[in-house]
Amino acid sequence: MLNTKWDPGRMDARVTIHAYTVVEDTVYGGEAGRTRTDVRSVWAKVESSSAKQPEKYTDEMVQTGRHRILVTMRYWDDVDTLNTITWDGLEYDVLGVTMVGRKQGIVLDCLAHEN
């Protein structure tokens, strides 16, 4: 649980949370693919993770070339590492979810999706 000051007024970015479902192949069996569903769009505070973890961010960028962000939003109990988010036209994988306060909010640690 993070002990940060909760300030909903700083949530000025629109973020869409997505869930994926597996589509089964009814003829041959197994997985035929995945379908993305928009769960909800929320207001959030988005910041580069370099502001909080500069050494981790630098290593990640050098190794993968992908951008890492922290997304703070109101608490949702159905958001986890199986979700992805879209912000500013890019899709991000959710690497971790940390609760803020007593279910006031959550902070998502996200890495730009590999295309």
Set down the secondary structure blueprint.
Elements: E1 13-24, E2 31-48, H1 54-64, E3 68-74, E4 84-87, E5 90-100, E6 105-112
Antiparallel strand pairs: 1-2, 1-4, 2-3, 3-6, 4-5, 5-6
Gyration radius over CA: 16 Å
Shape: globular
Strand order of the largest sheet: 1-2-3-6-5-4
**Approximately what portion of the residues adopt beta-strand conformation?**
over 45%
Low-confidence stretches: none
CATH topology: Thrombin, subunit H
Helix percent band: under 10%
Helix/strand order: EEHEEEE
Largest sheet: 6 strands, antiparallel, barrel
Q: Provide the CATH top-level class.
A: Mainly Beta
Broad structural category: mainly beta
CATH superfamily: Bacteriophage SPP1 head-tail adaptor protein
Overall pLDDT, averaged?
83
Number of helices: 1
The N- to C-terminal Cα distance equals: 32 Å
CATH architecture: Beta Barrel
- How many structural domains? 1
- Please provide the count of β strands: 6
Explain what this protein looks like in three dimensions:
- With 115 residues, this protein is mainly β.
- It has a single domain (8-112), classed as Thrombin, subunit H (Beta Barrel), CATH 2.40.10.
- It is 10% helix and 52% strand.
- It is built from 1 helix and 6 strands.
- It has one helix at 54-64; strands at 13-24, 31-48, 68-74, 84-87, 90-100, 105-112.
- β5 and β6 (105-112) form a beta hairpin.
